[in-house]
Amino acid sequence: MTTVSSTGLPRRELGTTGMELSTIGLGSWAFGGEGWRFSWGGQDDARSISVVHAAVDLGVNWIDTAAVYGLGHSEEVVGKAIAQLPQNRRPFVFTKVGLVWDPRNPTAAPRRIMRPDSVRRELEDSLRRLGVEAIDLYQVHWPDTGAALDWDANGADGAAAPQVTPLEEYWQTMADLKKEGKVRAIGLSNHDPAQLAAAAAVAPVDAIQPPLSLINRAAEPEIDWAADHGTGVIAYQPLHSGLLSGTFTRERAAALDAGDWRRTHPDFTRDLDRNLEIVERLRTVAERHDATVGSAALAWALARRGVTGVIAGARGPEQMADWAQAARLELTAQDLAHLA
Fold first, then answer.
1. N or C end of the chain: smaller count of CB under 10 Å?
2. Are 44 and 211 in contact (CB under 8 A)?
3. Active-site residue set
4. Neighbours of 124 (CB within 10 A)
5. Are 257 and 41 in contact (CB under 8 A)?
6. Tens digit of pLDDT for each residue in 47-99?
């Protein structure tokens, strides 16, 4: 069910957690800054903090981050930003676990590790960096394989090594943290329906975080699973890392900062022309509603059955100008058919 907050931004309950979320949440990947494997390039911390405050003013009531973003730096920035807000205006804070980096080699790809001792160490580090006593939603970033997370020619993570920690074991650890009160809810990101079912046999899956955009619909089976099981869904990359913003061009792709991970990703190189064609189809829908392309892209993801909210990243307050429009935009059956 969708309700409307006092700010006018629609809200939906995250599964059965009792948390009413604005349909758009703030993603903080870019807050990590430069100097690590999946950086978006340089980012000023004061500007990041201003983004958090502007999002809250807009009615956004949750922030999604991860320990690996900037190798802890994004969590530190989010922690500073929320500490400057009065208690009654602080947003829910969601973070992730399971990507472990080598501090001696920060530009190396992090490894997918969910050993119980590693999870508990990561949790304590995240609590300290965020400056909170409990995390509202703690999410497993990727299934544990022990392998390094990297991009292959298809834009997926590299060849998987045999799983190191069984899913049932690491999900029990997550459930234990919830029982201990260190986290309010637990979720899984980038897990397929079979893995979600295996986890649910151990403890309820409060939420999932899959990718979802007009360019990438591969996670629709996971979203269907969640909808059928009362599990909340917060979708990431609904703007496909800026490609669906309506402002991305071939020239902009060619001019990306040398430290920006998108510079070598297939979606921004080999497949760029195809993706920009999708943007033009989206533009025709946006024009019917006198809306921006980015608004239409977010509205499309929010129209998907089972989706609670979507994560939109911003590096400056100006990039949130159309979020309220997107949250209220209702695409017609004709629009959805045109985009299908």
1. N
2. no
3. 69
4. 11
5. yes
6. 999 999 999 999 999 999 999 999 999 999 999 999 999 999 999 999 999 99
